[in-house]
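B., you asked whether I could sanity-check this one before it goes into the benchmark set. Here's the sequence:
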Amino acid sequence: MADSKERIEYLVSTLNEASRAYYNGEEEIMSNFEWDAMFDELTALENESNYILPDSPTQNAGYEEASSNRETHEFPALSLAKTKLVSDLQEWAGERDIWLSWKLDGLTLVLTYDNGKLAKILTRGNGTVGSNITFLKDSIAGFPQKIDYKGHLVVRGEATISYPDFELINETIEDDGDKYANPRNLASGTLALDDPQKVKERHVHFNAFTLVHIDDDISSWGDRMNFLEKAGFTVVDRERTNAGDLPEVVQRWTERVENGQMPIPVDGLVIAYEDNDYAQTGSVTGHHATRAGYAFKWQDTEAETRLDHIEWSCAVSTISPVAVFEPVSLEGTTVSRASLCNLSEIERLGVGGKGTVMSCIKANKIIPKIIRVKEKVGELYIPEKCPVCGAPTEKRVSVHSGTKTLHCTNEECPAKHLKRFTRFVSKTGMDIDGLSIQTMLRFMNAGFINDFSDIYHLRDHYENIREMDGFGEKSVENMDKAIEKSREADPVHFIYALCIPMVGGDAAKKIVTKIGFDGFLKSLREHLSFEDIDGIGTEKSNSIHEWYAVERNAVELQKLLNEVKVANGGAAIDENGKCSGLTFVITGDVHHYKNRNEFKAYVESQNGSVTGSVSKKTNFLVNNDIESQSSKNRKAKELGIPIITEDEFVERFG
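And here's what the prediction gave me:
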């Protein structure tokens, strides 16, 4: 009994510390896999010994968040009982109809509405008390601030950040010790920020998963969710079913996750009774509401493998380790790589050299993760040189988290200027599809890209690229087409892509409008001032010349001009042009112009503008398929905006 008590106390302390970090958006102390295993062990020991501590995570719904704006929940946000067995779900469902939905992996929020207006947003906190974050109401998407319903309404949902946004945001964080372990961790950390604009930039999205309270009598769970959807909420996916069909439905939904069809993180499924009145009659056991719903978590498939080597990848300034191991089958796919995050994680796991025996899972059925080292072989070599530029490396310890990371000491390392490369290939830059941040990082670490102009010589490396994970003949072919297409650029996009400090798209347009692209080049080379251009001024003019005075920038510009033909190169924009004051949307294939970029360049040369979506400000939608049922055509017809063909455009404005 003494041993059991000691173990229980250790588990409670360890799990609570992990929960504290988890709910406050800090670096994770352990994976979900490890937390679940320890929680299950704690539950079993408590049942055997009847020794239950008041602060045990089996008795609490969450964890106190680090916030001064604390408020008590009107309706306690209790946890759902969890299982990994479909048979348990079937037994719970019994003869009643149920609804299956996702168990989203984010941060639970509770929204309250009165008199048709959003009155309050609380985090879940410990289930009884949460933090008031109503000041972030304009920074989170997925819910309306006004609704037609004038009664008292309480909605619970999950605030999530998508996988693509998670990867994009993490790549912009310079200190690896400050990066987030997963999208849920990022969502939690984001909603702890005090700056609404920063929160908005991270694309947090609310997904309603239950209507907690409404003054009206709506007894159907499905009708309650439909009510929320019609009111303008983003509502979690759902399907009505029963105990008999449940195994097939669970399998089908599981395959959606395994096939990579979920852009937002999920860590299981939830079932709820269709009869909401019946669900409300259930009792509360510990911190669970026994009829409110039942959560299903997937059995993590664990595979044993041997380490082949560590691949070190430099991003921004941090050099991160990726374990490359003998291929294993997990969740229907073959896995041979998993991120080890940083030096601290390597030390925690005890990773050794080649031949080290490790256990791997796919967290939430998506992300490969090393969960333990079973047999360490030798010592792991930490590189002394950056894999991108060859400069010496150094170990650092984050002052915020204590995390140990490896860094490149060269301030001019290309990997430290990743944002510049991202801007160069962006839609508003050279518009090169297929070159994501992750792809460019891999090319940098392979030595394929050091400067912008190297992008136009990637053909020299296609043979090696085809052999990389995630690439093949088709992807390389598509990338090549995008690169070749970008060789014809309009001057505004080209100047923007150069990443000149203080010169964005608007400033680039003003320069081209006033003096043309040739005038821009002449002013650079002869050190002529840009101050006379409306909206440029002394500060921006000096910034342009300071940029060009750096030899590397001047050389890079010339190398790019050897690769790229800048359309409309010598002509300034005609302020009295045929498209002056008009806004166009161009969609579909074009045949008169070489591509839509050239079409757009012509419109802008005639002092018109081109936008990507149809709105009340649009004057014409150009689409060679007039009868198309596309969303843009439908929107134009709804707003009474003329739809014209390319030939009609040329006749009127060409």
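One thing to flag: Residues 414-486 form a domain with the DNA polymerase; domain 1 fold (CATH 1.10.150.20). Otherwise nothing jumped out at me.
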